[in-house]
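I have a small job for you when you get a moment. Can you supply me with one protein entry, sequence and fold together? It will help me judge whether the discrete encoding reads sensibly. Write everything out right here, beneath this request:
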Amino acid sequence: MNYVLPHIDKLEPYKSGAMPKDHERAIRIHLNESPYPPSPEVLAALQHTPADILHCYPDPQCTELRQALADLYEVESSQVFCGNGSSELIGLLFRTLIGEQRRVAIPYPSFALYENVAASFQSEVIRMPTAEDFSIDIDQLLACNADAIVLVNPNAPTGLLLPASEVERLARGFDGLVVVDEAYMEFVETDESVIPLIRELPNLLVMRTFSKAYALCGGRVGYVLGNSSLISAFDKGRNSYHLNTLTQRLALAALKDQQYMKSSAAAVRQTRDAFSRQLAELGFTVFPSQTNFVLCTPPADSRLTAFEWTERLMEQEIYVRYFNADRLRDKLRISIGTNEQMDRVITQLKAILNHKE
């Protein structure tokens, strides 16, 4: 007898990038991790955390962290919810606000976890195709017959950014729920966040994470901002004690050092732009990115498929992301590391082009 629910039984699990065997030698530029450590404030908080916090339950409301985020974005703490990474927030989104048989429109391609979680909650996904250059048509989204729209901005895995004015036009013109995932917004050169709009638009939710610019992906903490009634639904649907005490303390410490975060993000942008130019010089087609990664198509005359490029790089302990998915099979997504790491990547790409090992 099969005890698994039928819709779960046929579901393909979300697939993350491969984990390197040699962690010391490997260049991990396939998971969009920060190439830099967290702020010294975070490391100090980690070192000075008393052991006795471990035998006490964490604050289930994440009161201090919520208030710190509310202060940063000049909203009320009731408009902020903190979760165990964006993955928990996405699960709560479908559990509490979208649910079974309701329709959610998502531009394609985008962050695949949304479609995976939607299937697990039996929500219907409407894939909204992007243009040939992967740009998103807001008018097309406004015309969709859906209960909710999910927009990742800047988008993953394309790296493309929609200006805040276009996202605002979507949120004001659509009657249903609009979810804007701004996981990579700290890497954008200008402020294109729509967080200020949550003060007046009751249908808008904005997701953020500490995993990228704050370099806390191992800590697993994300947050969502929106109307208090939407945030209260997340509170009702969450698990008890879902965000541990240590994570809350580390996130608070990270928030205190905004200058460090901004400096790290600026360094990533600088390396990203230089690396993109080098890729183009090698014959790669590079899509303009406003994130901590680039999406690119290898040179056609290399006679190697994108998957083969991935394998050749992996032989040298360089891990980049390959997606076996429509419109992405001929492309690579490459996260941005340090200048030294990206120099090594360029050297190896040149060697592959020259058919050298």
Summary: The domain at 6-37+259-353 is CATH 3.90.1150.10 (Aspartate Aminotransferase, domain 1). The mean pLDDT is 93.
